[in-house]
Amino acid sequence: MQVVRTIREARAAVAEAKAAGRRVGFVPTMGFLHQGHLSLVAAARQDGCWIAVSIFVNPLQFGPSEDFERYPRDEARDLELLRQAGVDLVFVPTAAEMYPPNAVTRIHVERLTEHLCGPWRPGHFDGVATVVAKLFAIVPADRAYFGRKDAQQLAVIGRMVRDLDLPIEVVGCDTVREPDGLAMSSRNVYLSADERRRATALYRALCLARDQIGAGERDVSRVAAAMRRVIDAASPTQVDYVSVVDAEELQPVERIDRRVLIAVAVRFGGTRLIDNVVVDPPPAGS
After folding, report:
1. Assuming Cys at both sites, which of 186, 196, 256, 257 could form a disulfide with 32, CB separation 3.0 to 4.6 Å?
2. Which is the catalytic residue, given 37, 108, 115, 124?
3. How far is CA 110 from the centre of its chain?
4. 34 is annotated as an active-site residue
């Protein structure tokens, strides 16, 4: 496994793999890896790819009151996990390497960032889109793999790639969960034992919504109210949102008459957790 820290080295390594006829799969991460990240690596391997992974805690996507400085980091552990997973290249740049002095260019994806986490994290998705566009330019892969837990991020990146005609296929992979349903996240390490237990309410609320829709419920307000009762019973510190949106455009809907994304963002203590499920309502009369 090759570990590089400069853009020049990363480009050279990918160019060499492509010259050898390899299809390149890319997994961008912010490190502190867990099984969710490794499942993306496994998906790339299953596709027969030469695998590149980036580890970069991107300052552009953190707001001034967010957890950039304390975001968990463990490079040595991450590199060992990636070595065991059979990764070919790991790109570990610094912020100075990624962003030249006085850089002023940002990428903004409209509409898809208007709801869900957008209002709660101003500028976040501009930071995500900008760094991912840069990473795609540095690591010109054939396919890039992202988890569906970050559904809004996945939608934003997919739309950016489509709109800018970037020559890469964005692959969404299923959320990896703990046995009790909690979605795996690097931020789970912040939770106390009691917060960790109560946080399982997020997935229980999502499952309830999915079951209600499967049973014929189409009114968003009733679905959201039932979810909110489950979450409130877990005594969260704050509920940022419980939302039902169109799965493609991420716009709020009043009736569930198409594929929807059901998404939540909830804080336990100082930790903000997100989760979601996509639901297709059964055909009328079924």
Report:
1. 186
2. 37
3. 18
4. no
